[in-house]
Amino acid sequence: MQFASMAKLAGVLAALTLALAPHAASAQDKTKIKVGISVGNAESTFEVVKKVAAREGLEIQLVVFSDYLQPNAALAAGDLDANAFQHVPYLESQIKARGYKIVPVGLTLTAPLGIYSKKYKSVDQLPNGATIGIQNDPSNGNRALLLLQKAGLIKLKPGAGENGVNATPLDVVDNPKKLKLVELDAAQLPRSLDDLAAASINNDYAFKAGLSLQKDTIAVEDPRGRYANVIATRAEDKDKPWVKKLVQAYQSEEVRKFIESEFKGSLVPAF
Fold first, then answer.
1. Pair 266, 40: CB distance under 8 Å
2. Most buried by CB count within 10 Å: which residue of 62, 70, 94, 121?
3. pTM of the model
4. Integer-rounded Cα radius of gyration of the chain
5. Pairwise CA distance, residues 171 & 169, whole Å
6. What is the pLDDT of residues 219-271, one digit of tens each?
């Protein structure tokens, strides 16, 4: 009787395993995913990524966003499977502010931040009292202030802007030219450039506005700095096979060569 009961139990477990197996496979092995990206250079880059991924059986549908808030909200809500538009410090600030369970899964490229101007050719030409636009989100605003400090235009109090502590204009302790720092939404900065002496503009928005990192900037971030962009997914998905395929497609030699030839140093592969 005991042997018969055990055999019956084994049969039930085997049947249950077979019943669940297709569902487990379908949940893990996606063949079609939605990826959120920002407007501009990411669109052309991901067209190459799509082709590489397709050869490995992964179809990518792109969802293009015009701001930096929606892609993480959409990913957290399940409307996207992944996004690729942000660096880790920005993601960390969003997680802290909104509680997202989102993690980076692979490096993409570095988009150096620039201080752009249509009126001046160098930081030395900026007049006293000039108005400088910077991003109003904590992470990119921090980048802008660090870049202004690197250019010798301002000085931040010790520790501000480093080790995960985002600086704000209130942290400026020395401002020899009495620059007026105006905080604006990142997407508005290119449109506001005509009314400003200069502005800190993210690479994708600058690209879309027809601005050149080489020709239109008076200060530029180190292209190999800590602000490399990443592919991000929900924490629960990070080890799934389709994530590995997505990252490998982006980090392929084909995509590397495209970035290097297409953007000529304004964007740098981070992998």
1. no
2. 94
3. 0.71
4. 23
5. 5
6. 999 876 788 999 999 999 999 999 999 999 999 999 999 999 998 888 889 99
Residue 100: DSSP 8-state: -
The full DSSP string for 43-91 is HHHHHHHHHHHHHTT-EEEEEEESSSSHHHHHHHHTS-SEEEEEEHHHH
Place of tokens 């502590």: 165
199 DSSP assignment: E
- For 152: left if phi > 0, alpha if psi spans -120 to 50, otherwise beta; the answer is left
The 10 Å CB-count burial string (b at 16+, else e) for 48-82 is bbbebbeeeebebeebebeebebbbebbbeeebbb
Token pair in block for residue 87: 């660096």
DSSP string, 140-165: HHHHHHHHHHHTTS-EEPTTTTSTT-
Q: Specify whether the CB–CB gap between 270 and 108 falls below 8 A.
A: yes
Find the mean pLDDT for residues 183-207: 95
Q: Residue holding tokens 């636009």?
A: 133
| Residue 221, both tokens | 């971030």
**Tens digit of each residue's pLDDT (9 = 90 or more) over 122-131:** 999 999 999 9
- Paired sense of beta strands 268-269 and 102-110, if any: antiparallel
55-84 tens-digit pLDDT: 999 999 999 999 999 999 999 999 999 999
